[in-house]
C-alpha cells in the first residue's frame, strides 16, 4: 500500500493551511479552555463556517447537486486534519456529518431543498435528540412519544445531554410512534424547530464548568407531518445509519489530529522544565511515555486513513469506524493522563491560574476527554460492535 499523498492532495493541504492562516484568529488558542467557552466561541464558529461555506469547503465531500464539491474522502480528511491540528472546532458539524448525509439517503425532496442549502452555507445547525434519562446506550428504549393528530405530530417527552440545544436552530429527534411493537420497530426520526412552542431547555453544567449540554422537555409540541424523515416507524434503521456517519472520524472532523499539538507541547515542556537539576527530557520514564503516545497516535492515524480509503472506493465503514472511535478517544485520555504526570503539580491548574503551564490545556484535555468516550456510543457499545460485526461473535 502506498501511504503517500498525491501531488494534488499535497497542493490542497497547502491551500487549506494558507486559508487557515488568513481566517483563524491569531489568538484563537486563547479562547479555549476557560469557563464560558461555548457561548463566547459559538459566534466565531458561525462566522468561520460561513467562510468555509463560501468556499464550498463546509460540505466539500457532498455531491455537487446538494451544494458540495464532490471532493474525495481523502481531501476531506486532509481538511479535517489541518483544522483539528490547529484546534479549530468547526461549527455545523452535526448538520454536515449526520443530518445532511441522512437526508440525502432518506429525506423527501422538500426536506433536501429546505435544509441542505443552508447547511452547506453554514447558516444552521442541529442538536441530537437521542438520549433520555432511561435510554442511553440502550437507545431503542426511548419513550419520547410522537402521536399523529391530523396534519401534525404531537411530541411529548424528555431528552438529556443534548449538546448546544440552547444555541442551534433544529433538533434531530428520535421519538416513539408505535408503542405496541418491538422497541426497534416503533421509532421515527424528525426535524424539530427549536423555537416551536412547548419546548423547554434547561442547562446541564459539565466537568469543565461549561454549558454545552442540556435537558430538553417537549410538552405537546406540535410539528407538521412534513417533519418526519424517511418512513414512519423505520427511524431506528435511519438512526443506525446516522450513528455510523457520526463515528466515521474523517468525514468532517478528525479528533486524532488534535493529539500532536498536545504531544508537541509536552515534548517542549520536557526539554525546558527541570527536575533535580536536569531537564525532564532526560528522565527515561518521561521519554518512554511520550514515545508510546507518539506510536499510538501513528496507529490511529493509519487506521483513520484506512477509512478514508474505504470511503473513496464506495465501501461503508462499520466496525472499522468503531475501532477508530474507541482507540482515538481512549488515546485522548491516555495522552491527557501522561501530561498530568509530566506536569506534576502544574497539571491540574486551569488557564485562569497565573501558575498554569501550557495554558492549562492538559487539565482541560483531561476533563474533556471523558465525554468523548461516551458520544456516538460508549466504549462498551463500540466493543460490542467490533465483536459482532468485526469478529463475527454472537450477540450474547
Question: Describe it for me?
Answer:
- The protein has 396 residues and is α+β, with helices and mostly antiparallel strands.
- It folds into 3 domains: 7-120, Butyryl-Coa Dehydrogenase, subunit A, domain 1; 126-233, Butyryl-CoA Dehydrogenase, subunit A, domain 2 (Beta Barrel); 254-390, Butyryl-CoA Dehydrogenase, subunit A, domain 3 (Up-down Bundle), CATH 1.20.140.
- Helix content is 45%, strand content 14%.
- The protein is built from 11 helices and 10 strands.
- The protein has helices at 7-23, 37-55, 73-85, 93-106, 109-120, 235-247, 259-272, 284-312, 319-343, 361-372, 379-390; strands at 126-129, 145-149, 152-159, 170-176, 187-193, 199-204, 213-224, 228-229, 274-275, 278-279.
- A 4-stranded mixed sheet has the order 1-4-5-8. A 4-stranded antiparallel sheet has the order 2-3-7-6, with no helix packed on it. A two-stranded antiparallel sheet has the order 9-10.
- A hairpin with a 2-residue loop joins strand 2 and strand 3 (152-159).
- The protein is globular, with a radius of gyration of 22 Å.
Amino acid at each position: 500500500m502506498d501511504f503517500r499523498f498525491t501531488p494534488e492532495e499535497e497542493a490542497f493541504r497547502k491551500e487549506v493551511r494558507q486559508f487557515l492562516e488568513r481566517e483563524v484568529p491569531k489568538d484563537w488558542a486563547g479562547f479555549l479552555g476557560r469557563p464560558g467557552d461555548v457561548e463566547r466561541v459559538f459566534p466565531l464558529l458561525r462566522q468561520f463556517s460561513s467562510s468555509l461555506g463560501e468556499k464550498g469547503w463546509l460540505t466539500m465531500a457532498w455531491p455537487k447537486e446538494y451544494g458540495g464539491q464532490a471532493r474525495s474522502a481523502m481531501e476531506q480528511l486532509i481538511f479535517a486534519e489541518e483544522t483539528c491540528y490547529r484546534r479549530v472546532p468547526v461549527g455545523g458539524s452535526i448538520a454536515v456529518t449526520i443530518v445532511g448525509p441522512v437526508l440525502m439517503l432518506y429525506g423527501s425532496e422538500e426536506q433536501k431543498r429546505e435544509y441542505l442549502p443552508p447547511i452547506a452555507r453554514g447558516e444552521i445547525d442541529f442538536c441530537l435528540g437521542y438520549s433520555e434519562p432511561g435510554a442511553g446506550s440502550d437507545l431503542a428504549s426511548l419513550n419520547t412519544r410522537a402521536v399523529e393528530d391530523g396534519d401534525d405530530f404531537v411530541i411529548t417527552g424528555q431528552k438529556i445531554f443534548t449538546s448546544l440545544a440552547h444555541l442551534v436552530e433544529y433538533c434531530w429527534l428520535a421519538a416513539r410512534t408505535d408503542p405496541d411493537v418491538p422497541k426497534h420497530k416503533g421509532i421515527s426520526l424528525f426535524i424539530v424547530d427549536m423555537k416551536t412552542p412547548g419546548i423547554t431547555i434547561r442547562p446541564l453544567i459539565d466537568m469543565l464548568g461549561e454549558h454545552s449540554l442540556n435537558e430538553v422537555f417537549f410538552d405537546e409540541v406540535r410539528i407538521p407531518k412534513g417533519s418526519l424523515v424517511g418512513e414512519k416507524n423505520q427511524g431506528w434503521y435511519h438512526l443506525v445509519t446516522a450513528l455510523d456517519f457520526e463515528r466515521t472520524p474523517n468525514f468532517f472532523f478528525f479528533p486524532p489530529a488534535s493529539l500532536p499539538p498536545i504531544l508537541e507541547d509536552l515534548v517542549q515542556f520536557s526539554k525546558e522544565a527541570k527536575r533535580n537539576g536536569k531537564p525532564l527530557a532526560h528522565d527515561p520514564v518521561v521519554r518512554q511515555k511520550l514515545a508510546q503516545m507518539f506510536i499510538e497516535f501513528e496507529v490511529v492515524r493509519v487506521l483513520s486513513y484506512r477509512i478514508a480509503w474505504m470511503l473513496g472506493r464506495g465501501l461503508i465503514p462499520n466496525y472499522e469506524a468503531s475501532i477508530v472511535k474507541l482507540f482515538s478517544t481512549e488515546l485522548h485520555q491516555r495522552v491527557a493522563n501522561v501530561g498530568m504526570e509530566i506536569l506534576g503539580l502544574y497539571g491540574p491548574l486551569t488557564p485562569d491560574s497565573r501558575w498554569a503551564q501550557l495554558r492549562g490545556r492538559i487539565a482541560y484535555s483531561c476533563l474533556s476527554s471523558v465525554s468523548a468516550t461516551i458520544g456516538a456510543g460508549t466504549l462498551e457499545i463500540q466493543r460490542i460492535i467490533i465483536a459482532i460485526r468485526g469478529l463475527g461473535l454472537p450477540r450474547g
